[in-house]
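hi! just following up on the protien thing from before. the input was this:
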Amino acid sequence: MKPYRGLYIYPWDILDHDDLASFVGRIREMGINTLCVGATYHAGKFLRPHGQRQKVFFPQDGATYLPIQTWGGTISPIIATRGLGMEALQVLHAQGLQVAAWTVLLHNTALGTQYPQFTCHNAFGDCYPYSLCPSHAAVREYGVNLCREMGANPYVSQIICETPGWQPFRHGFHHEMSFLAPNIWADTLMGLCFCGACMAWAAADQVNVTAVRQRVAACLSCYMDRPDDAPTADAAGRLMQMLVCDDDLRDFLRWRCRQVTSFMAQIRAAVREQAEVYVIPSVMENPVLSWVEGSDLAALSQVCDGLELCLYGGDTRAALSRLADIRDITGNQGRLRTVLRPASGDFDNGAAFVAHARALARCGVDGFGFYNFGHLRRENLHWIEQAAHAVQAQVLPL
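and the predicted 3d structure came back as:
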């Protein structure tokens, strides 16, 4: 089995090409063997440097882009007005590319707006429509059905599940504004969900969730009443103090992780055995902080086929350190793959990007994904080709 070389791509970037077979040929020449196709995605405003039909694209909010045959459940998916049909998937498969259904699960503002009763609610009772809550049976049913349908497609070889838990408080919502500086303590507390389902199920599991909610609301109110922001280092210290001293909060955070783990275990059980299920455990810069979203790295690596780790940024030392941390946390259980971003915002030039990828390969990484075809300049696509061939040569036996 060839090592994973994935290219993340949106359906509209595939549909840009009338001669799909020739397009696939160029992708394979880059050293790519898997297209990670956006199966479900949220709204955005995307600049496409080499887009053929639109340079600025606004995706349909919360839409599902791959074919769905059957459906049942309280929450129904939003079917894209222009999705990727079976004929296009068949061409990708026939031309020798694997297809991974890159499935954004619970980050869905359109569905959250339509079904606000199933979304995250903070300690003050405010609704976060961008974040469906995995404590609700209807939400879990939606996620399981969605992945089952994706996995049933004969041209889909794997599912990559993103956002299986609660979204962080700061996530880039439309015109998101706050004049309070980012603060890991306050932001973590603001992101905790105390909706009816979380309150009921946590209490049933002997978590003193009512006390947690009261203390979280009180702490946040006091902090927002202060005359100034806390220094960054002090915020990390305050979070550590609360995690050490507040037994109820620790119980609640561990309970949240069990919710996401059991949700992903349900998905893995529902998807046909021949289709692998990977999970992107975090949308944050450092995946070690995935517990903020309810992702237990060690537990998820055991209930799924592996983790897809977004190690963005050009700091090679930081990427290697985070990889080592995650290996320590998971005990090397399950497979770890990395996703890199070959963009000028992260790397000064192609040589630096190739060196970064080779450093990860020397540390045992053999599965690489690259993000994202439509966002990148053509020059950055050449970086991918150089890196893919460089790491391939590095893992070949002498």
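The first helix runs from residue 11 to 15.
The domain at 5-117+129-178+260-395 is CATH 3.20.20.80 (TIM Barrel).
cheers
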